[in-house]
Description:
The chain has 309 residues and is mostly helical. The protein has eleven helices and no strands. It has helices at 11-24, 26-50, 65-75, 84-116, 123-131, 134-169, 172-197, 200-206, 213-219, 224-253, 257-302. The longest helix has 46 residues, at 257-302. It starts with 10 loop residues before the first helix and ends in a 7-residue tail after the last helix.
Amino acid sequence: MDSRFSKPKGFGEILDLTFSLLKKRFKDFFMILLILLGPIYLVEAIIQLISGTSFFREVGTGGNWFEQIASSFTESGTIDSGSLGADFSLILVGLLTVIIGPVAEAAILFGINHIRKNEDFTVKSVIKQAFSRFWPMLGSSILFGLIILLMIIVPIVIVTIGGVAGAAVTNPVAGIVFGILLFLIIAVVIVYFVTRWSFFFGSVVLDRKSPGFGRSWRLTRGRTWVLIGLYFIFYLIISMVSFTVEATLGIALGNSVLLSIISNIVTLITTMIFSVGYCVMYLDLKVRHDADDLKELIDDYNNPPILNK
């Protein structure tokens, strides 16, 4: 086993190992994402071209250059920018991305697990492994999505009712303040529970346990706030990279097909960063959990239960 995965890691060590793996196996991980998601992005680009979007530089209406570039983004959402069929095709592309995306992430998880075991792997072999877990991944992911949806809708209703009731009983200002405080509290609770359950995916893929929510809850015990911090760091990195590239090139290219292609390539890279980070976090939780289980076994062995005579 690779020694880097054999012991529990701290916050900084997880980040360091994540970017070390990205640096050494960038080609393999990127090829996994490109093979699985690349064709979908290609279809999206073709649909945009057919709908009349310019390849190199898309501009809209306006009196000056900046207004033309800005309007190219707002006008792209109107009916005039493409037919209903093109809009439906883009929705289909989005749906395919949602379905195939987890397969790509699972292939990366299998790849890192092979690295952990000091085993060689090929892009083809880990993609094949990922598809072998397709249905358990799909079912568990749909269930997870429904849980998150309920956790968002119910608090919105509660906050709305609470804010209106507070405004009616006291005054509008107090109602708004109460609604904001209630929203913040509920948001923290949602983040907490989503983090505790989010490692179901690693359980389904690597440990073949579906839906994996119970195992995820056990693995994250005592590490929730550290994991939330790591998620936040990865979110900042991904957001900064995506915003920088899209904002910089968007000024020159407008909402063109070329910008869409470049944005999708950036999405592949940011998805790779998150997938590798997620896997390192999951394997670290497994090491900690297995170590705790071993300690319990040793304690039980050293302190056997006293049987009643």
